[in-house]
Amino acid sequence: MPDQAPRGETPTRSPRASLRTSVVWEVLKEAIDRRAEATGSPVLDILDTGGGSGSFAVPLGRLGHRVTVVDPSPNALFALERRAAEAGVADRVRGVQGDVHGLFEVVEPGKYDAVLCHGVLEYVDDPAEGVRNAVDALRPGGALSLLAAGLGGAVVARALAGHFAEAHRALGDPAGRWGEGDPVPRRFTAEQLTELARSAGAEPGAVHGVRVFADLVPGALVDTQPGALDSLLALEAAAAELPAFHSVATQLHVLARKPG
Ligand SMILES: C[S@@+](CC[C@H](N)C(=O)[O-])C[C@H]1O[C@@H](n2cnc3c(N)ncnc32)[C@H](O)[C@@H]1O
Known about the structure:
Blueprint: H1 18-39, E1 45-49, H2 57-62, E2 66-71, H3 74-86, E3 93-97, E4 112-118, H4 127-136, E5 138-149, H5 151-160, H6 164-172, H7 190-199, E6 203-210, H8 219-224, H9 228-240, H10 243-246, E7 251-257
Parallel strand pairs: 1-2, 1-4, 2-3, 4-5
Antiparallel strand pairs: 5-7, 6-7
Helix pairs in contact: 1-9, 5-6
Bound molecules: S-adenosylmethionine.
């Protein structure tokens, strides 16, 4: 029997970190469950492009799925191997050194039930090619999970920190950058991310705003007030679905499906 994570469990080990992952995890898990039901197979093949140290890959392995992580960073792959071993899923979670642009040098196209591309499109040379490769890696009917930095969230965060000129610059910059010191090379609107999926041949589905409030509220408030973390998680879950909040979310998540 696979090591099943209980329903509702988030993939992170610390409650505070669940603010970063819970919305995406719930959406992703539902899509994976739907795919498993549609294929009649409880064990799916999942590809995590730029999966890093496995913050999603390892929990997906714990659900019993076979997960391949492609990442260019040897350090990340080393951390992934250790994390998978600690979680007892080393036989189901495999790391491969590679790049989303040269994806098919290291994995086969058309072999995956779900492909994740989380926190990667900000950094790659050509996001459109990256998403095309992610879609080409899917089996017909497979699920694509895109997560990337949102433009509006960065503008709001810079403005609330008192950096008004930087906020203004990000607003007008084609890549959504607030200045030379900005560590993020590119940010997206929900429309841009959805269009990337569509142009790559996938049918975009649900869009969620991730971390609408979490990065704006003082950490001490969440850590010290009884019940505050749970209330904030519930608020984030409710706001995530509302298009009005997509334009100010720190990250945007788009779920899409390969036709067939
Ligand atoms: C912000 S981390 C996100 C890690 C993981 N996906 C997550 O959500 O926790 C970005 C990851 O993308 C990887 N990366 C950077 N450029 C890449 C590329 N061209 N192709 C694939 N992965 C890349 C990095 O090595 C890093 O592990």
